[in-house]
Design brief:
Blueprint (H helix, E strand, L loop, with lengths): L1 H63 L6 E4 L3 E7 L4 E7 L2 E6 L4 E6 L2 E11 L2 E10 L10 E8 L4
Antiparallel strand pairs: 1-2, 2-3, 3-4, 4-5, 6-7, 7-8
Length: 160
């Protein structure tokens, strides 16, 4: 009878539809996780950028408030920058891939930026103005973005 032949075709069609559905589901799942990973990487890089900008603005405020000569001392593990201010001295310490801001007189030490690849604070001669430049590179946390996070901050002392 013809209905048996028709029923067999419908079973094969159902198996084909199930296979196509499984393939599409697999591709959709892979695309979802690809987007998920990249979104997490962009969010993480955005947080790193915001942290670096906040640290840079704080450093610029400290340089502008300096009342004496700013000094840079190389250490075995990194760099030490001394910024004298009216009431106390501020120290920026780059060691072990992290930047700390310290005020020894008040016994305050704060982690400014973790996961730093490179940091260098340099004086710049600009006529009578005492200017400084901070070259900063933050480590990449995710390989998906392939975005080098490099920053340059510039500041001038209000009272050299």
């Amino acid at each position: 009878p013809s209905w048996q032949r028709l029923a067999g075709m419908m079973l094969i069609e159902c198996l084909v539809y199930i296979a196509v559905f499984a393939i599409l589901l697999g591709i959709g799942t892979a695309a979802f996780y690809f987007c998920w990973d990249h979104t997490r990487a962009v969010i993480s890089d955005t947080e790193d950028i915001a942290s670096a900008l906040k640290a840079g603005e704080g450093w610029r405020a400290d340089v502008r408030g300096a009342t004496g000569t700013i000094s840079v001392e190389p250490t075995t593990n990194g760099e030490l920058v001394r910024i004298p201010e009216a009431k106390h001295e501020i120290i920026y310490r780059f060691e072990a891939g992290a930047i700390h801001r310290e005020i020894p007189a008040l016994k305050i030490s704060r982690l400014v930026l973790p996961d730093v690849r490179a940091s260098q604070m340099l004086p710049e001669t600009r006529g009578p103005v005492s200017a400084w430049r901070w070259e900063l590179e933050v480590k990449e946390r995710h390989k998906e973005t392939r975005l080098p996070l490099r920053f340059t901050f510039e500041a001038a002392q209000a009272r050299p």
